[in-house]
Amino acid sequence: MKSLTVATRNPGKIHEVRLALQDLPGWAIEPLPSGIPEIDESGATFIENATLKATHYSRFVEGLALADDSGLCVQSLGNLPGVWTARYGATSETINQRVLKELEGSSNRDAAFNCAFVVARSGQVVWTTEASLAGQIPLNPAGDSGFGFDPIFFVPKLRKTLAQLTSEEKNYWSARGQALNELKRFLSMT
Question: Are 70 and 176 in contact (CB under 8 A)?
Fold first, then answer.
């Protein structure tokens, strides 16, 4: 059996990867083992941060390591929080509240959710992909599924936030879902 280690400590991301790849034969989807030193996400782009993490963590695990970097880019906030999402607040809730507060009175609530995936083996990149989903920030959070920005990311064509979608719908529509579909294609040929 081939091994793919999901290089994150975020249980929501691990769950989404496992769900998306559950019917992919021959692959064991593993969490990141404890005791591996963290790496600073110092890249200027989502793909740079994902590359830093994938190459770093792949040196400590067997098989392939999958790392991602994703974030919300709000147009009227100069595309913040962007790659600084993890440093924009202590928890998802505080980050979401900060974004909503900063948008008070703004008529431009356009945003994009971006996701970059990088797969590495033994410190070398073997595959990358990037995906994006356009949407808007509603006045108030809605829905209780998912994690992170899901309650404050409204997809106009679906008339729902990501947190109001089923797991299957989210894996189809979201930027992470798009990237996961590309990952599944890659792994099925590996």
Answer: yes
- Write the pLDDT tens digit of every residue in 120-171: 999 999 999 999 999 999 999 999 887 788 999 999 999 999 999 998 888 7
> How buried is residue 42: exposed, middle or buried, by Cβ count under 10 Å (0-12/13-18/19+)?
exposed
Measuring CA to CA, which residue among 74, 47, 71, 46 is closest to residue 135? 74
Q: Tell me, what amino acid is at 170?
A: K
- Separation of alpha carbons 175 and 131, rounded Å: 5
Residue 142, domain extent: 2-188
Tell me the catalytic residues. Answer: 69
pTM: 0.88
Peptide bond into 25 cis (omega under 30): no
The structural domain count of the chain equals 1
**CATH assignment of the domain containing 14:** 3.90.950.10
DSSP letter string, 105-163: T-S--EEEEEEEEEEEETTEEEEEEEEEEEEE--SS---SSSSTTGGG-EETTTTEEGG
Is there a contact between 133 and 117 (Cβ–Cβ < 8 Å)? no
Quote the CA–CA distance of 142 and 90 in Å, as a whole number. Answer: 20
Please give the sequence-ordered ranges of beta strands (E in DSSP) within 10-63, or none if there are none.
27-31
CA 152/CA 50 separation, integer angstroms = 24
